[in-house]
Amino acid sequence: MLTGIGALSVAAAGAVPVASQLLGQASDSRQPTSTSTSTPSATSTAPPPAARVVVIGDSLSTGLGTSPDMAWPNLVRNDTSGGKHPLAIVDAAVNGSGYVSQGDGGSTFLSQVDGSVQKTTQMVLVFGSENDMGADGSQLKQAVAKTLAEISAKAPGATIVVVGPPSYTNTPEPARLQVRDEDRDAATEAGAVFVDPIQEQWIMGHAEQLIGPDGDHPSADGQHYLQDAMEKVILANLRE
Asked: Among 39, 57, 79, 166, which is disulfide-ready with 61 (CB 3.0 to 4.6 Å)?
């Protein structure tokens, strides 16, 4: 159980980072940049405004096990800065939290929403949580529904993306699957996008590389893996 949620070392010249290899793609952000010093033309357009994204979650999103700077939301923010689709990410995640589970300071996903989501928020991504394993199924589904309803009330125009809890093995526990199922059902009823790391086999088969010594929280490689996965999810669902 997560009691609290959470850089990739520079690869040798020409090598593809571990996280990108495991996702079957290279990360453009870590490729050599052009050394061209050409002067921008007078007709160059201003960079697009950054999309406002709030991340709600547990210690998988706080950098626990590495550092806050290495948390995947910060990596996504840095990776997209100055690009075609810059993301202004607010990481509201708190260690130990869930829809039902209370984390540090009594935090739940609902209280994170209340403290961070605004009318101008364009996307809210809720990630997790295995901290809810063992909660009553109907109570969990109601808590998910209430959290998503609060997001819609505070940011009516925002896209809501619900990412279920991941499993580090291909035989997830029944309690973990129950959390995934309740999250999915509530998200579907609310009209939110649901992403299933278990079905998509995130991390599975690569836990030795992507999970730190505590067996629960991402290593530096794991944070970069989540960065690549989440950045793809965010950009695919962000409204123009």
From this structure: 57
